[in-house]
Design goal:
transmembrane; VTT_dom; TMEM64; mainly alpha; 219 residues
Length: 219
């Protein structure tokens, strides 16, 4: 019975991700009551299914991660939702990086020559600070960071750790918004221009700080 329930929930989540257009906030709100009922009666199964689907979505860069984050916020709250989504997103990002490194290296190198050059320069000059900044700021899309970082020498463990910390602020913002899911009118209500500027400044902070410290050391 539990296996059947788990499979049913997984299928429902997958179908929703496939057939709901990206940013379909109204549809997510429509099904919120059903999600709440599943979570109330089967909290562990719902969490496991959401985690598994989120990892797949993040790994394959399937549209729907934002909606899943909002859903997690509405069902699991800020603390549990942060643990669930942060780990799922980071596992997915790390798997995508490893797929790029070991399976798609030649294709990525040929397809993204220009951004790959920028990534290489950034990593050579700033190291992990650069990766941290990329996770905080919307300079490159999520999927592109994973693909391009697979071609750099960054280790898997460091990539996981820096990605986890770098993605936390945005995850917390969306989870917090998910707690008021029924009141949202659009995804634009979540990330205002001011919030985006804040993320950009946070991403630039470690790079600027490092350069300031390096300049003082040379004098």
């Amino acid at each position: 019975m539990r296996k059947l329930l788990f499979a049913t929930l997984a299928v429902v989540f997958i179908l929703l991700i496939i057939f709901l257009p990206p940013g379909s906030l109204a549809a997510l709100q429509h099904y919120q009551a059903q999600f709440s009922a599943w979570h109330q009666h089967h909290p562990l199964a719902t969490a496991l299914v959401l985690f598994a689907i989120y990892v797949v979505v993040a790994t394959l860069s399937i549209p729907g991660a934002t909606l899943l984050t909002l859903l997690a916020g509405s069902q699991f709250g800020l603390i549990q939702g942060t643990i669930l989504v942060a780990l799922a997103a980071t596992f997915g990002a790390t798997l995508a990086m490893l797929i790029s490194r070991y399976l798609l290296r030649d294709w990525v190198q040929k397809r993204f020559t220009a951004p790959m050059s920028a990534i290489n320069r950034g990593m050579e000059q700033e190291g992990l600070y650069y990766l941290f900044a990329l996770r905080l700021t919307p300079v490159f899309p999520f999927f592109l960071i994973n693909l391009l970082m697979g071609l750099t020498p960054v280790t898997t463990l460091r990539y996981f750790a820096v990605s986890l910390v770098g993605m936390l602020p945005a995850i917390v913002v969306y989870l917090n918004a998910g707690r008021e899911l029924s009141k949202l009118r659009s995804l634009g209500d979540i990330l205002s221009p001011g919030m985006i500027v804040t993320f950009i400044l946070l991403g630039l902070l470690p790079l600027v700080s490092r350069r300031i410290v390096a300049r003082f050391r040379t004098h």
